Amino acid sequence: MQKSISSGQIQLWQFLLELLSDSSNAGCITWEGTNGEFKLTDPDEVARRWGERKSKPNMNYDKLSRALSRAEQRKLNENAEHFRQPEQDL
């Protein structure tokens, strides 16, 4: 796998997209449907690779899943903000 972003700066969503864009990673992560959803077919391998990329050898699926949950919660909060703040007429 080619590293397009230095290990210290890559975000989890970028890393997952990188894995998904290479069909040779289908053994551990694949697209599911057409709505931008994906499936971790080997979550332990994805976690291992994420830990390797971030130089965190103790990374495991529990830690990775918490990071995914936090990312999803941030996304939901950002979307909710758009609905709470009406546009102002200038």
UniProtKB/TrEMBL annotation:
A GO-annotated cellular component: nucleus
Locations listed in the record: Nucleus
GO term, biological process aspect, one: cell differentiation
PROSITE patterns with a match to the protein in the record: ETS_DOMAIN_1, ETS_DOMAIN_3
InterPro entries: Ets_dom, ETS_fam, WH-like_DNA-bd_sf, WH_DNA-bd_sf
Main subcellular localisation: nucleus
Segments forming domain ETS: 10-68
Annotated GO MF terms: DNA-binding transcription factor activity, RNA polymerase II-specific; sequence-specific DNA binding
Keywords linked to the UniProt accession: DNA-binding, Nucleus
Pfam families: Ets
The family this protein is said to belong to: Belongs to the ETS family.
Protein name: ETS domain-containing protein
Upper classification of the organism: Eukaryota, Metazoa, Ecdysozoa, Arthropoda, Hexapoda
